[in-house]
Amino acid sequence: MQPKWLDWAQRLQALAQTGLNYEPHIFDRERYEAVRQIAAEMMAAYTDAEIEKVKGMFTAEDGHATPKIDVRGVVFRDNAILMVRENLDAGRWTLPGGWADINESAAEATVREVYEESGYRTRAVKLLALYDRNRHHPPSVFHAYKVIIQCELTGDMPEDAHAAEESASFRETGEATFFREDQLPQDLSLGRITQPQILRFFEHYRNPHLPTDFD
């Protein structure tokens, strides 16, 4: 579970963002901006982030505050699950995935992310889980839901999904490998996936009739 100070900071930021979205009176606007400032100060006080960087992240968010959507693809082949190295997290392993984009369905976003991060072409077949990130993962600035979708391979070999001119130093992920249940890597990117979650997906693989998991 996330620490109380982070829960308070997220809630204050969401209140300020939502309040500013509804064209408040000038004096209410000032109050909402002051609440957002307090949330940024709390975040900066408990982390190594600079206050101006935190304020910038909060200011960039507008509209009614809602959780972000992180999609992850679960791809099996020969009783092994597809995982990729996350370059943005010191090469730790995770399921392919990332933030959903505007005008994409969750299934479309997942298929795209799997292809971009592993090179494998797939199709989405089942919603395995809908998790509240705050309940399963280390603390993060913004609240998010994690959408986990099982995908089937439509090709045996990966393609080069990266643009030819793209430098490897800018790629979010590196190596893509299939792991059996008893050989899972220990260095997981815990902000993205956890071992209990992966083991649960193997249960779904063995028993396709299991219902979707959700918080």
What features would you highlight for this structure?
34% helix, alpha+beta, Nucleoside Triphosphate Pyrophosphohydrolase, 2 domains
Written description of the protein model:
With 215 residues, the chain is of the alpha+beta class. The chain has 2 domains: 4-60; 68-214, Nucleoside Triphosphate Pyrophosphohydrolase (Alpha-Beta Complex), CATH 3.90.79. Helices cover 34% and strands 25% of the residues. The protein is built from 5 helices and 8 strands; from the N terminus they run H-H-H-E-E-E-E-H-E-E-E-H-E. Strands 1, 2, 3, 4, 5, 6, 7 and 8 form an 8-stranded mixed beta sheet that branches. A hairpin with a 5-residue loop joins strand 2 and strand 3 (92-94). Helix 1 (4-21) runs antiparallel to helix 2 and helix 2 (26-46) packs across helix 3. The longest helix is centred in the first third of the chain and has 21 residues, at 26-46. The protein starts with a helix and ends with a strand.
